[in-house]
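Aim 2 progress update. The chain analyzed this quarter is reproduced below.
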Amino acid sequence: MFEFSYLVALLATVTFSITGVLAARTVRIDLFGVVVVGVVTAVGGGTLRDIILDVPVFWIEDASYVVAAVIAAVATFVLKDLISRRYQLLLYLDALGVALFASSAIIKTLSLGLENTHAAVMGVITGIGGGLIRDLLTGRPTLIMSRDLYASPILLGVSVQLLVLAHTGMSASLAMLLGGAVIFLSRCAAIHWHLQMPDQLTLDSRDSGH
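Predicted structure tokens:
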């Protein structure tokens, strides 16, 4: 279980590092700046999770996460001219990173003896944390503040994961895969078909009368 969780966390870190570099292409930035954005994006959500849970921060405890994030950022920078349809790629990679981080956060939170409610909240915070930091650093509109289905797929996935853990004999590893798959596939569907929240469930500045 430990090795599987470790691989999931490492893949999530690499994925988010790549999205940081892709997002940084919209601004004029040198290689060092690109690496900083990539690494901060990669470790941002997990850092928030560990600080809130009051446990050793994962990348301080194991520097391989930072090394992987740096390598991914540099490799993406070098291969930047080979990457086409950058924005769509960023969205799908973000979906993968969110799914991996959110589903693994559930397992880590439950392993500390906390309740399902705490785990669900930590899953959402961990999932959106890195992307939120990335978008703020690169001056992009944050995905969480758009009408696109972003937080909803995360809530759906973590709910499925927690339900199967509570009511079936499914192992934590399989439940993590299932929860992550639900998040990733539902988010991909939202990206592909441009699914949005209905107007009745959307807060619009025009509603204020200004």
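Residues 2-198 form one domain. The chain has a mean pLDDT of 91. These observations will guide the mutagenesis experiments scheduled for the next reporting period.
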